[in-house]
Amino acid sequence: MVSFPPSWRNYAGHAVAGRGPLVDKRAAWRIGTRGTGQQRIVAVPVQAFTRQVQGVPLQGGQVTGKVPASGIISLSVTPQGLGTVWYPSSVNISTSLGAADNSTCAVYLGSIAEQNLQGGQSYAGGGDTVSLAVPSITAGQLVIAVWTGAAAGSLAAMNVLGTMDALAY
Q: How far apart are CA 35 and CA 61, in angstroms?
């Protein structure tokens, strides 16, 4: 049988936790029991996010996917988080074949069901930058890139560039 030093008896991350005398039985197996120095992560309430930061570089606009046998792939990204607004200026598109890939790529703003606003078109789907002239977008509105004629098995990627507004605390 394994024995542990007496100083370990109240260590929360060990099998012998809680064997010693307890002041509060609710804390028997919780992180942060006495003597461990561990603390729970504090959840920040959504009401604390009152300050808006504006014009910061766009984050979270990257996505990749593997081209299926049909040669048609659709990748999409959307702003994440309450109060986040994107102002996209361009989209970098590429495939793992690079310039050897003769696919075409169309960039849209809208939903997957209805691609209602075409933002740009590239006949060099293997690697190009597509400039966008689209309005600001919020969560739920998508930037969609659709490749046609791409090589099956290759990796397609898009990266949305621009600025964004976000909430901070």
A: 43
